[in-house]
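Pasting as-is:
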Amino acid sequence: MDRGNFIVNRLSNLYRMKEAIVHTTTGGFAAIATAFVAESLQNMIPWLIVSCAVILCDLLFGVRKSILMGEKVRFSRAVRATMGKMVTYFAFVCMVCMISVASHNEYPIDVYSCLLVCFIEGCSIVGNILKPKGININLIGALGVFGKKVFKVDKEDVKDIIEKEEIHESGK
């Protein structure tokens, strides 16, 4: 019977040790994950606020453009498009901020990526402001001029990069 009690006690001790290791490992992982998420949120929050502000400005100037041009404004469609943008851009901002934190902020990927989002929405805002005045901005043409000036690339070379393909409708 002593031998049986010894084995039971030994197994009980091993089980308690296993439980302690599992709880310690789980607790350690939770602490690391919590610290990572907290640091990521610190990086994300300012960019999420900026992205939200730019997206809402785009919504307002888009509605203004539609009203000035006599187009019918469908509130549900405008909000649905805006919410789609918010989900896409917020997910993008979260991703790049987490990548930046994971790389110990070695590369400022979050800054440049979020500025790209702001640039895209800024171009949309400017387009919405100028369109009722009859002014359209050709973004591809502007990028061609920018590439020519900054990178000393010929505009004709840039035109060769993008081709517009004609879509043929079958059955009509």
